[in-house]
Amino acid sequence: MGRASCLRTLLIGPVALLVTLAAAPAAAAPLAAADPRLAIAEKFIPHRAVYDLSLGEANDDSGITALRGRMVFEFTGAVCEGYAVNFRFVTEIFDGEGNAQISDLRSASFEGGAAENYLFTSQTYVGEKLTDETKGNAERDDGRMTVSLKMPADKEFSVADRVYFPTEHLIEVVAAAVDGRTFLHADVYDGSETGDKVYPTATVIGRPTTDKAEPGKNSAEVALLPDEMVAQPRWPVAISYFEPVGTGEQTPIYELHFLLYENGVSRRIEMGYGDFSILGHLKKLEILDPPPCARTK
Fold it and tell me: Where are the domains of the chain?
């Protein structure tokens, strides 16, 4: 999986987590009026979050001596009209000889409020050169999910409908946290890389707390939050992504750690790529207006 692409799924330094992939994943299902997950989804807020990026841990094999960058995550919409996500991830990476490489991932997606469809596009630039581009859509119908890719090449394929789209998965993670569950196994499709993979994921959820209960901890980030979020429950979450092949125990190809609030906002992010990790510190948080259909409730 690309070094930033799976952040579209949610927004971990390596923890050597081994998971048995033969376990049955949670079954994805569109939200219905009586579904308790609907109450969770309705708490999600439109927002724009800006994170400063820096190098976490890096071993000698990584060849990385320094890293800096910025990540912008914009989430808009609501259950009543669907969700739009715009994402940009820019990094400048330095090697041991002082050489630098700038990479820039830009992506946009739309997901139906009942997780009935998902449209996505992404572009990756290295320097000023476009190196990768993906575009397509996925539709659910009669117990199957059909993916139609336009780039990098025309392709259509189907997968079993036990697969989550990104926002649907995030809702499921918060629902599990609210229920007091500590583990969630789910297959996720976000159109990342070449758009033809469904990734098995394993999510570990820690005990809830509030920023009010831990005054002074990460105070610079907490100061950016609205007052009502300081007393809102948050959970430490770790999500591991695996190659979509084989069974038995596998080592994650990518890991993501973050603090997750029940309104869908994340902070204190750490992304693990095996031989190095990237830290994301919240620098700015802007709460956006909900769509008209949500304001009428």
Answer: 5-295
Nearest to 104 by CA among 120, 126, 87, 86: 126
Structure tokens at 149: 């890719």
pLDDT in tens, the chain (297 residues): 443 444 434 332 222 222 222 233 444 555 555 577 788 999 999 999 999 999 999 998 889 999 999 999 999 999 999 999 999 999 999 998 889 999 999 999 999 999 999 999 999 999 989 999 999 999 998 878 999 999 999 999 998 768 999 999 999 999 999 999 999 999 999 998 889 999 999 999 999 999 999 988 889 999 999 999 999 999 999 999 998 776 666 788 899 999 999 999 999 999 999 899 999 999 999 999 999 988 765
DSSP character string of 222-290: HTTS-HHHHTS-EEEEEEEE--SS--SEE--SEEEEEEEETTS-EEEEEEE-SSEEEEEEEEEEEEPPP
Helices (H), the chain: 37-41, 166-178, 219-222, 227-230, 292-295
Q: How many CA atoms lie within 13 A of 192 on its CB side?
A: 21
Amino acid at 218: N
Which residue bears the tokens 């992010």? 269
